[in-house]
Amino acid sequence: GGTVQFDQVHFGYDPQREILHGISFTVPAGRTLAIVGPSGAGKSTIARILFRFYDIQSGSVTIDGQDIAAVTQQSLRAAIGIVPQDMVLFNDTIGYNIAYGREGASQAEIEATARAAQIHDFILGMPQGYDTRVGERGLKLSGGEKQRVAIARTLLKDPPVLVLDEATSALDSRTETEIQTVLRDISRKRTTLVVAHRLSTVVDADEIIVLDQGRIVERGAHADLVRAD
Ligand code: ADP
Ligand code: ADP
């Protein structure tokens, strides 16, 4: 499951000032859609609407055909995982930061879930590996390691829909490439919305939409859009 559909979505933070002017797109289950465009185009607004931080003025947003206005916040949070640009870590261990929000789960349960979701592979990308590092404090981590923790935390929920919101924008270019490889791997298995501001970083998305001032001005595969440039 996990098909995401926006149909003629109109939205303004202030109803008098519309920000999104009739946005429509479909991300079929398991596919990746990238939303690119300049700062202020409305990319983050689309992500916030998907999480239902705001209600739209008209149109509809559905996941697997179900209007998100009709589902509980709880099931929406279970359905959508987000990897943000710069996750703020708690001043606690890596393990705590990954497992946060799963109160009641024992360390053994968390470990088992993490293993099932193949989270260890990501953490093992850290120089000394998961088992020796899980007890370390999160605040000492580098930018790339922090993003691995953010990814691990998101994957632990095993959400059918994944939102990558400028998830590598804050990293240096070598680390960015490394984390992008990790993200590409996990996005192959689930419905993914990638928010980015450069076309060059979303090469293998199934579809790319270019947003400008709240309108989709172009859409297509990467090769089509590059040709049109
Ligand atoms: P992007 O993510 O593409 O940079 P945003 O979705 O953040 O763009 O912003 C789209 C428009 O909405 C901009 O004009 C921005 O100023 C406005 N905007 C964003 N957040 C808010 C808010 N909380 N209240 C009012 N206007 C906002
Ligand atoms: P920016 O342009 O702001 O630097 P990026 O374009 O680097 O932002 O990336 C936004 C996010 O999308 C990053 O987490 C990146 O790894 C991810 N990403 C880019 N292309 C793909 C893709 N085809 N599939 C999955 N994730 C992708």
Automatic annotation (TrEMBL):
Chief location of this protein within or outside the cell: membrane
GO BP field: intracellular iron ion homeostasis
Taxonomic lineage: Bacteria, Pseudomonadati, Pseudomonadota, Alphaproteobacteria, Sphingomonadales
Gene Ontology terms: cellular component: plasma membrane
Keyword Oxidoreductase: no
Compartments in which it is found: Cell membrane
Organism annotation: Sphingobium lactosutens DS20
Superkingdom per UniProt: Bacteria
Ranges of residues in domain ABC transporter: 4-229
Protein name: Metal ABC transporter permease
GO molecular function: ABC-type transporter activity; ATP binding; ATP hydrolysis activity
Keywords tagged on the record: ATP-binding, Membrane, Nucleotide-binding, Transmembrane, Transmembrane helix, Transport
Keyword Transport carried by entry: yes
